[in-house]
Amino acid sequence: MDLTYLFLGIVFTYLIGAVLSVVLHRNDRFVTYASFISSFIASVLGIIFSFSVMFGDTFVIDIPGSSILQFGVSIDKLSAFFIMVISITSLAVSIYSIGYMTEYFGKKDIGYLGFLFNMFILSMILVVSASNAVMFIIVWELMSVISYFLVIYEHEKPETRKAGLIYIIMTHVGTGFIILSFLIMASASGSFDFGSFQGIGGQLSPALKDMAFLFALLGFGTKAGIVPLHIWLPYAHPAAPSNVSALMSGVMIKTAIYMMVRVFFEFLGADVLWWGILLLVVACISSLLGVMYALMEHDIKRLLAYHSVENIGIILIGLSVSMIFMSAGQPELAAFGLIAGLYHLINHAMFKSLLFMGAGSIIFSTHTRDIESLGGLIKKMPWTAFFFLIGSISISALPPFNGFVSEWLTFHAQLLSTNLSNNLVTVLVLGSGAALALTSALAAACFVKAFGISFLALPRTEHAMNAKEVPKTMLAGMGILSFMCILLGILAFHVAGILDSVSAPIVGTGIASTITSGLTIGTVPSFAGSISTTWIALLLILFMPLPIILLRSGITSKYETWGCGQPFSTARNEYTATAFSKPIRKWLGNIYRPHREIHATYANSHFFKTSFKFESHIEEVFEQYLYEPFIELTLAVSRSFRVIQTGSIHAYLAYIFAVLVILLISIITGGI
Amino acid sequence: MLVQFALFIFQLLVILALAPLLSGLIKKLKSFFQIRKGPPLFQSYHDLFKLMRKDSVVSENTSWLFNAAPVVSFASVLAAGLMVPIFTTALPFGFAGDLIAVVYLFALARFSIALAALDTGSSFGGMGASREMFISSLVEPAMILSIFAVAINVGTTNLASISTEVISQGMTALSPSHLLAFVAFFIITIAETGRLPVDNPATHLELTMVHEAMILEYSGKQLAVIELGVMVKQFLVFALLANIFFPWGISSGLDAGIAASIIAFSIKIAVLGLCMAIVESTTAKWRLFRLPDLMSISLMLAFLAVVFTIIMRGG
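YS: structure for the whole thing
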């Protein structure tokens, strides 16, 4: 009973935040505090609530309704886990927003954003709590539409409007597929209640089951951003204000993963081998292409958006390997794969939101998203730099931080495939390890670039030169998530145990006794391998004093960077992001299809250049070869329909009459 | 507890003391092939002591990260060193990290040095960091696949267990897949330790250098710490090569077997060092953009090793 009040408390606090935002919208400062403190309180309540459900029983609220329009909330451990991820992230982002929104004071209506912000988080919480397909679709749409309005918050910019359009189209195509998938399942269960969908896979014919899977994959895959349905991410995330992109990339795309787990495992049973294989292939392609495109980006927010594609891929590798194990009837191994996926999910929520907030801080104080015009920010914004560095290390999967733990688990989930009897599948899963390794190495390269070019060395432009550290509230928001990144890394043994309790009801068996022991996490007994990030962290701290003592004595003098004997220590001589990624651009030229143009104008002879322009860009392969032909085809088809759209009312009356006659004839002859 | 502590100290001393010797040995062997006398075997120690006595000159463009990078990279290499069996498989911290963790600790060292290279604002640093991260992207997939090949053969990724398991399999462990994985790993070792044809440790020519370009701005004590870290890493990668693929002779504790183990290890390392010297003496530096070919060879060999193991198990 207490939990009911707590849950309603969460819902009403968000609603109060939304209402206050509207009421107080005339005073920028009041409305900022009102809306973000409300969402902060609601997030705290959300964390308490999710923990009590995660260590307790499933929480249910039934709201009586008609047989079709039933509303209700059912929160099991999986839902609680997602509410926890949403709440931790929104807690940090709420604090961050208090400082971040001062940027918009006097320029935009803060109340409008505050209203949407509160409603957005509320809708995400309801998405993972809905116990009914109809209610789910309603809150899912609510979430999509609210996030659309958040994306177009700066709608005076044309590129923002374009981003919003691409996003709203893609997300609705996705919702269409989700509805199809639900209808297939509802037709078998006779109800829209998620409870009745449980194990519905057994009642569906194989063809319908496969269709339900594919529609769900397409529908939720669009929201998650798997390749080739990812094209909206690099538009929508940069267009939205940074606190919103932190929430969208950090948590919103995860709600799709939540439903994938529900649909693939709980509803459809995950007992078809090729589902897992298809998902694995899609996941590998997403992670590789995501990071490859990220490497070529100089817009810090587009770069991070592409990394979301990559990390969704990594999460799905864990999930798909788990599905392969499920179809082979090995629930213990499936539990391991699922834990790997869920672990990376919470990690990605933490470090990606952190990095987006870091990017927001950069934009806040430099007003540019182009890392080529940054540099030297580590001296101007030391704390932002420090937190961004923690995020970079985490996303590059370096020990002892959290990204490493989940990638380690994913590698071991892949290794466990030796327990499968199908040789071909085993080789495929093991081969996907190479894809994951390449992904993580490229991610490290990308974050050396992203951090190194924007924060280190000398400022390249006035923007970076005049940068100042951001307000304390913004730093606090980033600090919380940095702390979480470290915590999730060094307390891996504890987190893995919690995740096991989440995955156990889904796969039907718990592996808590084998996955953790003491401070160590390890794989299931059939395959030995263990790490202890706690000890790795302790050892690193233990060894640090040794070189520090060695380095401490003696004189250190400052001098300019060596420039082959010439005084050239200026920012113009620094390596650029374009140059940094050049070897990879050349190596993967077949994927990027780079082309560059050099324009030079000369005075008198070709020895004296007056101006020099260099352009280098890569092709947007998916937009150019997949979406544009499709759009053109759609337009061509609709143009051909113009023939019958004469605009004359007589013609339309004739059409109606003709249809009526055809229908009457078909009814009389019993054709239908 | 005391034994564990003794083993811990022993392992640390071994890797710190012997790492420069290996560098000296390879230099000496290379000189032999070039028909010259070369520097003395213990020259690396002298170099390190010399650097330790010198003051540092630091670029005025740098931030705290430039000073932190040598510390972090050194600490991560040492931490990795506690998980790699050298003379004995009794590792007090063997549980704390497996082969994958060792690889990622090396990656942490690389990450910090690459950032420090960018911190100086020098084009050399940027060039070196860019190339280093490019090469590491090429290496990583082959590395993980060859780790997979070894791991599925013996059923574990913890290094001490790999060694004991390979020994217990006896000569049957030397299967085609084991040898293929060894060759794949040897190619990776060339890249990981920055040797020809991937990188030239002896060069200071801006067009060819990778690692040297990254640490160009370091001097004095900081350089000594970095150099020692690099030597330790090289030693560890060689030890991996020796004790994963040919662990015979390694002792299982700090007992009488240790003497035999030291001799066996010295022979293994000397042979591997000789192989490396031969490779370095007979190849020229490759163009950076030919390296994907070399690494694809390694990747394919590792993949074949995986496939072999899976086929050999039947089913």
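YS: worth flagging: Residues 58 and 76 of chain A are 4 Å apart (CA to CA).
IM: good catch. Also The two ends of chain A are 53 Å apart (CA to CA).
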